[in-house]
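Give me the fold.
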Amino acid sequence: MDPKKIRTYIIYIAFAMVLIALVLYLTVGRASQNSAVYGTYVGPAELSALYALSHNTTLANADGTSLYSGLNLSSYFRHVSNNLTAPSVPTLTYVGAEYCPYCATARWGLILAMMRFGNFTGIEYMASSPTDVYADTPTFSFVNASYSSKYFKFVSYEIETRNETALQKPNGTALALFDTYSNGIPFLAFDNNIVADGTLIDPTILDGHNWGAITSSAAVKNTTISDAVIGAANIYTAEICNMINNTDTNVCAQSYVKSVQSKMAQ
């Protein structure tokens, strides 16, 4: 056999072995067993899996928001009155912390919702505090993330690390919103006039799972994780559609969006 072909085959085999090892590393066992991955960037393959999950409209419409049927969405998303200057473009503001298990679960739904409107880079693997409640909840961090969308701007702050040391400090409008209207973290503000605190996803649902395992389970219709994660993503998607006046017709015309919007603050 041609030596060049042999070298090519060896490279392909080595690449495949590395990919298999990475998949196993990110899907087997608890997040705490894969602690070396904390703070490392989510690679293209994993991002692609999340994008595919976020854009699965058949799954989104099938899962709907059944898990949250008893939730008062008009109470979760609160209108606020303020004298802040309206942003030049619709803006979604997030304030959370890497140690926070409630922020950990909220990011799953939020990331999937936002991927329906734009693109992330720089998302990192993370887990919540090992000493807080719901220890080591698998999640991601926005600390070095960038987001681009033609529909809205995303502003994020992770105020403390996984070990509860200071990290990013909100400023300007984000600080004014957080100081005035937050009841805790995670805190979300949609275009400065709709705010929400806390998570939609019960952290116990993700207990004992890893990033890849959560993504895989979320892709299967009507599993507990899918109902929780996709349902939360659908709710955030509907509020984003409200924020941008439904200008993304591909997303905002979906039946799950219309169903959620009928039950929430406008």
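The beta strands are 78-79, 91-96, 118-121, 124-127, 138-141, 146-149, 153-158, 187-190, 194-197.
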